[in-house]
Structure formats: C-alpha cells, structure tokens
Amino acid sequence: MLLVSYISENKAEVIEGLKKRFFDEPEATINKVLELDEERRQTQKDRDDAQAEANKSAKQIGMLMKSGQKDEAEAAKASAATNKQKAKDLSSRVSELEGELQKLLYQIPNIPRKQVPVGKTDEDNEVMYERGEKPTLPENAKPHWDLIEQYDIVDFELGNKVTGAGFPFYKGKGARMQRALISFFLDEATDAGYMEVQPPILINEASGYGTGQLPDKEGQMYYMGADDLYLIPTAEVPITNMFRGELLQENDLPKKMAGHTPCFRREAGSWGAHVRGLNRLHQFDKVEIVEIQKPEDSEEAHERMTKHVEMLLEKLELPYRRLLLCSGDLGVNANLCYDLEVWSAAQGRWLEVSSISNFGNYQANRLKLRYRDNNKKTSLLHTLNGSALALPRVLAAILENNQTEKGIMIPKVLQKYTNFEVID
RNA sequence: AGAGAGUUGGCAGAGUGGUCGAAUGCGGUGGUCUUGAAAACCAUUGUACCGCGAGGUACCGGGGGUUCGAAUCCCUCACUCUCUGCCA
Predict the structure, then answer these.
(1) Span CA (A375) to C1' (B43), Å
(2) A41, A91, A188, A249: most buried, per Cβ within 10 A?
(3) What is the DSSP pairing of strand A283-293 with strand A255-264?
(4) What is the pTM (predicted TM-score) of this model?
(5) ipTM of the complex
(6) A4-107, what's its fold?
(7) Distance, Å, A72 CA → B20 C1'
C-alpha cells in the first residue's frame, strides 16, 4: 500500500496515477484518505494527552498510598478514572479510524511509472521487441495437446479422475522434462547469485496480506479452512514474506532468492477460450526469483532480472517477445511490469511465461520491511520478483516448436538434465 | 494427539502490582591509552506514532480483562521446549 506521507506530499501525481489506472473517483478517495489521516492524528494526540494525565495521576496515587495519605489517594482515583475513560474512548476511535484508513489504502493500487503506457486491456500492452526465429513447422504439425497424447507424456484424463480439471499427471519423459526444466532454471538462478530456497507452499493470513494477495484476490487462492491456511499462487508469497517485519542493514543488501514450488490457482471464472492443454492449469510448477533492493537500485535490478529470464529463453532456443504492460493490465501492487511471451508455433500465438515486476515500496510498506542505511536512517525497501520460469507453457512451446517427423527434439541445454535427446 | 514447562531488548538472562522501557553480562558503536593491535577504562547503544521543539504515547509472544496503576494477576490464542504416543 501507499504511504500516507507519500500521498499527501505528491497528491497531484497520485491522482494522476490513479486516473491512468482508470480508478474510480481518485480525487474523492485521496481526499478521504487525507481527511481520515488528519482526524486520526488529532484523535491520537487527544488520546495521548488523556493517557498522560491518567499516568500522572496513577503515579501520584502510588506515592500517596506509600506515605499513608489514604483519603487524598481516594480523591485522586476519581479524576484518574475520568481520564482513563476518556483515553479508552479515544483509543477505540483511533482504532476505528486506523481500520477505515487501512481499508481504503488497501484499495488504492500502486502508482504506475511514467513509462507505463495508458491502456485498458492486454491488447494495449506495448511490444518492446521480439527475439529469436519462429520455426517453420512440418505440414501435419499438431498443437501440444495432441502431442502430449501422441507421446503419452501428460495425462489430463488421469488428473480428472484423481483430482479434477486442471490437475494433470506428467508421465515418463513428460515428468522427466519437468524435473529437467526445474533443475536447469534453479542452476541458472544460482549461477546468477540467487540463494536457492525451498519454501512452504501453505501460507497464513498475515503473509497473504503482506504481499497483497489478500484481501483483494482472496477468491483466487485455495483455502484450507480447517487450519486457516492458503495454498500459494506463487512462490513470491512465502519467499518475500521471509522478510516481513524485518529491519535489515544496508550491508546485508540486496537479498536475492530463487525457489521452485508448485503454484495453485483457482482461476475462478476465467475458463473458456484459449485454455486448452497446458495453457492454463489449477496446479503448475514455477521457479521464481525474488529480490529485496535498496530504492535507488531497484530499477537496475528489474532490468537485470528481466535479462536473466530472457537469457533462459534464449538458451532454450524459444522465440520470445518482451512486453511493457499497460496501466490497465499492470497488477495492483506493481509500478512497472514486463511480461515475456514465447511463441507457441502450432497454436500460432504468444504465451505468457513470465511477469517481472517492480513493486517499489508498495509491498514493503505492507510487509513493514525496512533497512537501516549506513547513516542510521531507516527506510522502506523495494521488492521485485519474476517467474524464471513457469513450466507448462514453456513445455507447450518446446513441444510444438520442436516437433519433427522423428519426434520432439529436446533443446541442447536441457539434454544433460533429461538424459534423452528426443521424445518419440 | 496427551501431560508438563516456557515465550522479556541484537544475544544471554534478572525482574511476581507502583519512579520498570526494564538490572546485569555479552555483543555493537564512539572515545582514552598504544608505533599498531589486544587488554583495560569511559561513554553510548530498541522500534513505532504524535509534536517545530521541549516533550508525550505505545510496545516485555498476539488479543482481551481486572486495577487509580500490569512485564508482574486473570481469560484466550499462537508458538517453543521436555516426556509419552504416532509417523515419512
């Protein structure tokens, strides 16, 4: 969430940013925030004063009791009680105001950076560039959902029986491909300086609020009511929350972590066109990279992370393009986001395989994630993350793009992980 | 899962109703001394909110309660440890 101090110091810019996002009634909302904050401050001041009085009386009573002046002590109790009641009333008013303010702040998205193009849907995203050569497919080329059946490497029917739609089994060379991709991605991340972590895949409510999945995306997560835990939609949640509430030292920065987890998404209401095969699943595997950076370094880190993911796609010999997300498609927590899409030759369309986001201090403010610089000043940190990479669509593209009469050719870089060169 | 014991500042560890934001030790920072270092000595050393400031307020696992006054008493939740049980 945004800092109230930031909102009040950059009111015009914030309203402008919200308009860019097509946010409803930006002026009214921002004014309400500032009003609530003003009232909260005043009420808290009154409360503190009343409490100070009460504390003073309590000390006096203590001394009177000690020196045996019981009557005076009894008299003082009356006025202490009045102040105490007053402080109590004001306290609950402060909590009320804080609650209202926070609720409002949770609804306000991050402010898009200047370079973010204005647009409402993914069609308005800006294609920055394309890399790699689109393959020429044989005449009888098939989409991946046919290929996985032909080679019996992913089984949706089995998944339907055991769990339900969107939970496929990977079998034989298909399963081995998954393991190969995970190892490859993690090895590359480790080489790039990320610490490998294996986080829990269930998270508590506080973590959900910390990275912003709660409250707004509650319906997208699987919820385990018996234990009040959520299945993670992405490793971003547990990994970033490693640092929730921490005060780091400048010399410990940056923090760079990479982790592989299954990811779970209910995708409520979003089933329909374009979701055949591996294009959209309820459970999928992903390697995620997360960075905690000083504010002045986050922009450079964002670019470096994106380059890292592009390098992965290049090594896998997949044609890709880089998109600058428009204001309407940008996630609420992010101020800048690049998507990487791979060319899925038989489907003849681009598939999103990675989103690399810079959240500025928006998440850090929720997380209370700060650092103390070498001048002893504490400030909020910046958080970033990106998929490096999401597996099913990468697999789909490899299957489609590399299909030949002899079978599916495995990219060279993966062969040492698969121990086979072709799926046939 | 059952029984018991715990949770205090960066760490260790006192404190069982009043001037306790909290002894003491270690660690950290600054200084004295030294050619330099160590040792010793001196000083300093939590976070957040409000306030121009002086200063005020809150925080001793979380939440609630009793009391004029709570780290200290009560309730509740979470977590940790020990023993027993179960288990990859």
Answers:
(1) 20
(2) A188
(3) antiparallel
(4) 0.92
(5) 0.83
(6) Helix Hairpins (1.10.287)
(7) 25
- The residue type of A348 is G
Non-local (6+) Cβ contacts of A421 within 8 A are A409, A410, A415
* C1’ B62 / CA A423, Å: 55
Work out the pLDDT band at A143, boundaries 50, 70, 90.
very high
Task: Give the alpha-carbon dihedral of A414, A417, A421, A423, to 10 degrees.
Answer: -100
Nucleotide closest to A5 measured between CA and C1' = B49
* pLDDT tens for each residue of A163-200: 998 999 999 999 999 999 999 999 999 999 999 999 99
Helix (H, G, I), strand (E, B) or coil at A44: helix
| Lowest-confidence segment of A16-25, A121-130, A275-284, A354-363 by average pLDDT | A275-284
Domain spans of chain A? 4-107, 122-423
Residue A162 (CA) to nucleotide B84 (C1'), in angstroms, measures: 38
| Architecture of the A122-423 domain | 2-Layer Sandwich (3.30)
